[in-house]
Amino acid sequence: IIKTLEGAAELLRRRGWTQGADARDEEGNALVFMGRGLLTAHAYCVAGAIYAVTRENVWGVAPRAAAATEAVSETVGERVVVFNDTPGRRRSEVLLALRKTIKRLQRGARA
To answer: Which parts of the chain sit beneath pLDDT 70?
Structure first.
């Protein structure tokens, strides 16, 4: 889970973050999970970045992506999609949530 979240955070830092869509192309058009452009998108929501990193099929079994999104949900206290798409949310807040989740999981792994 930690590697998945680190990869998702890197995608959000390098390529950008979005709301209201799994991902967006350079023109701002919405891309859907597992669509052809998801792996090369210009910007991602948190869940879209997680799925891009795991490359799991969202319509089938996706244990790594599900575990990663659940871990973030536990950190922020609500579903990842709701957290990501909250009006006024900033990319810095999303990245902070990912860092907090990673740190929490690392502490748990040491316990």
So the answer is: 33-37, 57-61, 109-111
C-beta of residue 95 within 8 angstroms of C-beta of residue 12: yes
Neighbour count for residue 50 (Cβ, 10 Å): 30
Task: Give the Cα separation of 111 and 48 in Å (integer).
Answer: 30
Measure the CA–CA gap between 27 and 70, rounded to whole angstroms: 30
Q: Please report, for residues 9, 33, 55, the alpha-carbon distance to residue 91 in angstroms, rounded to integers and kept in the order given.
A: 10, 20, 22
pTM: 0.90
User: Scanning the structure block, which residue is given the tokens 């390529």?
Assistant: 15
- Distance (Å, whole) CA 28 – CA 42: 8
